[in-house]
Amino acid sequence: MTLFFDVLAIVSLIAAVTNVVLLVYQNSHRRKEIVVIDAAIKVVSADSKSSEENLRKEIASEIASIRDHATATRAFAEAKALRNTVVVSVADHAQIVKDHKG
Question: I need a surface site. Which of 42, 62, 74, 100 has the fewest CB within 10 A?
Fold first, then answer.
């Protein structure tokens, strides 16, 4: 019977050592995966920041362009309104002169 327990103890010891070796191997493999994933995240993060900066610059440029266009449109509208006011004023003046003579 002692031979049976000796064999059982040896098999248990082999199983325990194998289990420890597998755990160490799996942890080592996980660490490598974590390092690779961490590096990929850093690259993506840097790309994201660069893309964000580029988008901010593009948006600022578009806003400046819209403001320039709005300023030009406003200036054109004011000049057109002034021209129309002058024409109306001249027409009103002509009508006033005509009414006054009549």
Answer: 100
DSSP string, 30-57: HHHHHHHHHHHHHHHHHHHHHHHHHHHH
The rounded distance, in Å, linking the Cα atoms of 58 and 32 is 39
pLDDT in tens, 1-22: 788 888 999 999 999 999 999 9
What is the distance between the alpha carbons of residues 86 and 79, in angstroms, rounded to a whole number?
A: 10
Q: Give the pTM.
A: 0.46
Helix, strand, coil % over all residues of the chain, rounded to 5: 100, 0, 0
CA–CA distance, 57 with 41 (Å, rounded to integer): 24
Q: How many CA atoms lie within 13 A of 82 on its CB side?
A: 6
